[in-house]
Amino acid sequence: MSGEVWSLWVDCRLCGSRDLRVLFTATRSGRQVVRCRGCGLVFYDPQPSPAQAAALYSSDYFAREYPAETEEGQTRLAHRRLTRIEMEAGVGSLLDAGCGAGRFLAVARTRGWKAAGLDVSPSAVQLAATTSGAPVYEGDLGRPLPPGQAPVDVVTMWDTLEHLANPVAALAETTRWLRPGGLLVIQTQNANSVTAAWMGRRWEQFVEFHLYHFSPWALRLALERAGLAAVRIEDADQFGDAGRASPSPAHGFRAVLGRLRDRAWVLAGHDAFNVMIATARRPARGTA
Ligand SMILES: [Zn+2]
């Protein structure tokens, strides 16, 4: 945690409410966490200024978050995700928004995708272009489409939404990059998970650069308000994993107690999954 003072106080970006409940100060980041009483969106208040937010992504961020030793796992994960996406959309063109080091782009290209990347960080843009050989654009989803870049079949956002200064506006911008009928795929952490509920201020997702946390309900609302349709939200661990054997449950007293505790939280209305994937489509022409 940097300890630098943030002073950008915000209303709820999703429903506009000022009726915010202060939950706690997060242990890892030292930032104040609030939940909107209108829509349940969870976020830091105050937020960083644009300059402070940009400073969170210095070049050492990418070395830290994408160490070379995780490359094999990242590659396997990208194949699993693409297997599932191809079941829904075939192989075509895609934009990976918040492409980071570009591993997903590189794998997509090996599978025949016409892939392009987008990232706000100049060091990520350089790294991703080198890693993948794909065109990688600097900026956010609000920037104009680069010359020669047509709207794509699929826009992906892997662990990106929670980093954005205005994630709700960004979702609306995705429709400019998607062709009519195109597929949007978003992975983000679930603020309504059992883990979030019992960890509270110590939830591992409350790191400094995760500015917003959605529940499945809030994410669905944000996507529908952005003009997207056919919204579906599921456990990220199951995405692209049809048929993969789940590990057998651990035995012993503590494991059983843990499962009972989780079951109680699920009964209380929380979701068993800590990370979720939402898919949605830009309505085809004539049906919007
Ligand atoms: Zn709200």
Can you describe what's shown?
By secondary structure, the protein is of the alpha/beta class. The protein contains 9 helices and 11 strands. It has helices at residues 50-55, 59-65, 71-89, 103-110, 122-132, 167-177, 194-199, 216-225, 253-267; strands at 20-25, 32-36, 42-44, 93-97, 114-119, 136-138, 152-158, 178-189, 212-213, 229-235, 275-281. Strands 6-5-4-7-8-11-10 form a 7-stranded mixed beta sheet, sandwiched between helices. Strands 1-2-3-9 form a 4-stranded antiparallel beta sheet, with no helix packed on it. α3 (71-89) crosses α4. The protein is globular and about 50 Å long. The model has no long low-confidence stretch (mean pLDDT 92).
How would you summarize the topology of this molecule?
Elements: E1 20-25, E2 32-36, E3 42-44, H1 50-55, H2 59-65, H3 71-89, E4 93-97, H4 103-110, E5 114-119, H5 122-132, E6 136-138, E7 152-158, H6 167-177, E8 178-189, H7 194-199, E9 212-213, H8 216-225, E10 229-235, H9 253-267, E11 275-281
Parallel strand pairs: 4-5, 4-7, 5-6, 7-8
Antiparallel strand pairs: 1-2, 2-3, 3-9, 8-11, 10-11
Helix pairs in contact: 3-4
The structure holds zinc ion.
The site of zinc ion has 8 residues, from loops.
